[in-house]
Amino acid sequence: MTTSQPPAAGVLRQHAEDAYADELAALAAVDDRPRPPSWHLSPWAVATYVLGGALPDGTVVTPKYLGQRRLVEVAISSLATDRALLLLGVPGTAKSWLGEHLAAAISGRSTLVVQGTAGTQEEALRYGWNYARLLAEGPSREALVPGPVMRAMETGAIARIEELTRIPSDVQDSLISILSEKTLPIPDLDEEVQARPGFNVIATANNRDKGVNDLSSALRRRFNTVVLPLPDTLEQEVEIVRTRVTALGASLELPADLASLSEIQRVVTVMRELRSGVTTDQRTTIKSPSSTLSTAEAISVMTNGLALAAHFGDGTVRAEDVAGSLLGAVVKDPVQDQLVWQEYLETVVRNRREWSDLYRACRDLG
């Protein structure tokens, strides 16, 4: 997951289709392969947009997702069928990021989004009403307020549902008829909305989160599931963090020396060792904290360190700039995680001579 283009002035974060409009236009210009109905690009071009590459005209397409090519191809192929796509994985594995870019490349828009929460109601997945107009005029199409999924059905686009398993189970099940029959009944108007070609759904769900509502078997059958793994290697994860921190630093206008982000490798190493329960050299077994310690958290630690270095230092990120955020990322449970962190500090960090500055910075925090 990478990006290098800064947002436009006045916008903190552009939608994917706006931030990478030039790349999408270049891909469309050279894309002569068959496209599924209503798709803006062919599956090949969508994969190239997500994974990066060089086009015949010399345009370089930056990679948006760093991971297994086959997983991305399976995800794209699923969306070209009548099956919806479920991106599953632990927090911080770029599920939402990948879903946004797939929707941007396929439909040209990534903004038909339902954010799943414990309070999400059926209206968010189907439609609601303008109650003032409903009371004044009675049920009518003008009084109906379509939700993102309904608008995607009407326009043949991709709808995104974030955190599907945080939505109550009875509300989740309202998707069954939409995904199976491609039809959304509107009983009050005695009519229905039939999905146009190109309509599909990308949903995301965490498989290690607490307080979730499992999908029913009936709904699960409507999805093709792609499990996104954590980065395979230290080098791959370091590269993901480096590119994201570089992009975030540029968008936040942090005047830091991005070339000197040597702390990234140490932060990522700490995250990988604590979540795997063993040191990189496989010689020491350690306890894992309750937190996920995903790539997203490593990005957050480095971005906070970048801000500290930019505003209160000389622009170079050092151990004392990342120690506080690192402690906050690891210690979610003030009792158990604190014990895990202290043990890791004394048995691993302390014994690495080249990490002495990080050890002192963490110890100074108490």
Account of the 3D structure:
The protein is of the alpha/beta class. It contains 17 helices and eleven strands. The chain has helices spanning 16-19, 21-30, 43-51, 69-79, 95-107, 122-125, 131-137, 148-155, 169-172, 175-181, 217-220, 234-251, 263-276, 295-312, 319-330, 336-349, 356-364; strands at residues 53-54, 60-61, 84-89, 113-115, 127-129, 144-146, 158-162, 183-186, 191-194, 200-206, 223-227. The strands form four sheets. It has a five-stranded parallel β-sheet. Strands 1-2 form a two-stranded antiparallel sheet. Strands 5-6 form a two-stranded antiparallel sheet.
Distance between the termini: 34 Å
What structural category arises from helix and sheet content? alpha/beta
Order of helices and strands: HHHEEHEHEHEHEHEHHEEEHEHHHHHH
Number of strands: 11
Biggest sheet, strands in spatial order?
Answer: 4-7-10-3-11
Shape call: globular
Oligomer: single chain
Largest sheet composition: 5 strands, parallel
Radius of gyration: 23 Å
Average pLDDT works out at 90
Note the total helix count: 17
Strand content: 5-15%
Which percent bin holds the helix content?
Answer: 40-55%
Low-confidence runs of at least 5 consecutive residues: none
Domain ATPase dynein-related AAA: 85-223
Protein name: AAA family ATPase
Organism: Nocardioides renjunii
Pfam family, one: AAA_5
